[in-house]
Amino acid sequence: MSGGDPVLRVLCVDDNHDAADTLGVLLELAGYEPRVCYDGFSALAAAEDFRPDAAILDLSMPGMNGDELGRRLRQTDWGRTLPLVALTALGGEDARARTTAAGFDLHLVKPVNPDRLANVLADIVILKAEADQVAES
Asked: For an engineered disulfide with 43, which of 13, 68, 88, 119 has Cβ 3.0 to 4.6 Å away?
């Protein structure tokens, strides 16, 4: 990527507007391109055009919860290998079983340590770069 291009496009979905907006700002400051949505339906529509490299989803949202959104993203041709990160207040075994069943790659509990989230995204960047190199050869 050239100089100012974002390293990663990240879909951030949380019905708590403050939490979603804050995460979006932090990601932008870190050089990522966030797309912030506040519900599953708008996130699904936005993802079609945005084509994120990763998605950070809250689980407990009205209408379409995060695990259903994760399942639907994974059903798209472009989303089959999309890294899905649950970022939720739910930390119990039931919630972790939900994210596993929905195909999430990681389950983080709020409040998340910003360094932990940064490391997760850095790993995704590395894996994406390696996949891009393989595809180019």
From this structure: 13
